[in-house]
Amino acid sequence: QVQLVESGGGLVQPGGSLRLSCAASGSIFSINGMGWYRQAPGKQRELVATITSAGSTNYADSVKGRFTISRDNAKNTVYLQMNSLKPEDTAVYYCNLYGSRWYGGPVGTYWGQGTQVTVSS
Q: Element (H or E) spanning 80, and its range?
């Protein structure tokens, strides 16, 4: 079983910063990529940022220039550095991993439990 443990969420003032962490553990053979998604009240879940095993990154237009995704491959951990936070960034942030649990196995998608990020003065 693949488990994703998230940390770093909380309450921050507009213009402030937070760093989210997500550590993956369990039966993981190969990780294709990891990422962060978020869901605000009354809205659909949206992609925030992703990073592949090769280091290629992708960001939502709304966070480009403010958020940075990075990964420690040795620790199977992904980070999301969030700077210049805005109230509209308020959401539940979910860590995502997609990869294979065994050689030749199918690519699966796994999710963390979500962590609340609230940007408010």
A: strand 77-82
Give me the phi and psi of 26, to 5 degrees please: 105, -155
Residues 6+ apart with CB under 8 A from 64: none
Closest CA to 22 of 81, 104, 64, 103: 81
- Judged on CB neighbours under 10 Å (0-12, 13-18, 19+), 90 is middle
The tens digit of pLDDT for each residue in 42-55 reads 999 999 999 998 99
Q: Quick one: which H or E segment has residue 19? A: strand 18-26
The Cα–Cα gap between 14 and 104 comes to 46
pLDDT at 28: 87
Structure-block tokens of residue 51: 């990073």
Q: Is the pLDDT of residue 73 over 90?
A: no
